[in-house]
Amino acid sequence: MKLRSVFPMKIAKYGYIIVSTIFCIVGIAMIMLPTPSAKAIGIFCGIAMLVFGIIKLVGYYSKDLFRLAFQYDFQFGILLMILGVLTLFRPGNIMNFISISFGVCMIADSLFKAKIAFDAKQFGVHEWWLTLALSILTGLAGLVLAFRPSEAVSVIMTLLGVSLLTEGILNLSVAISLVKIVNNQMPDVIDVEYYETKEDS
To answer: Domain segments of the chain: what residues?
Structure first.
């Protein structure tokens, strides 16, 4: 029997980890030095959303063992790709759009991840509470970013940095604790040949 390839699962898991780590690094940099150009941030956010959207689609079709981390990534991956393309079209004059769209995406992602955390609890995954706690924190950061308490660019950059950091930590946690790769995983549908036998009367 041919075993399922784990290559797409590895792309999705390690893609999640790499992109989330980049989010964390860039988020910390923006918190400490909230003065990069709006155009540079627009280009980064556009590329990041586009790449992460593609990784989410790969994750959705990879069919990892628990089917927890990627179960909502089809719709969310397409949404991120669309937002990424829109952001790349006008990266220099788009801070309000980035704040609102990225904030709303974070809120939606936190709700999906909270549901995943409760599903993980049913599966007996011990780290479910960490995913839930990080989901709540990410949702709050997304809410603040979407409403922007200040129009100052430095404040928006700092909020965006905090949001990238919390989103990165959340996705790192999900990828590490909930994505299980089994090398000898069987396919969902097993091909079986049936033969009719005639019984002697």
So the answer is: 7-178
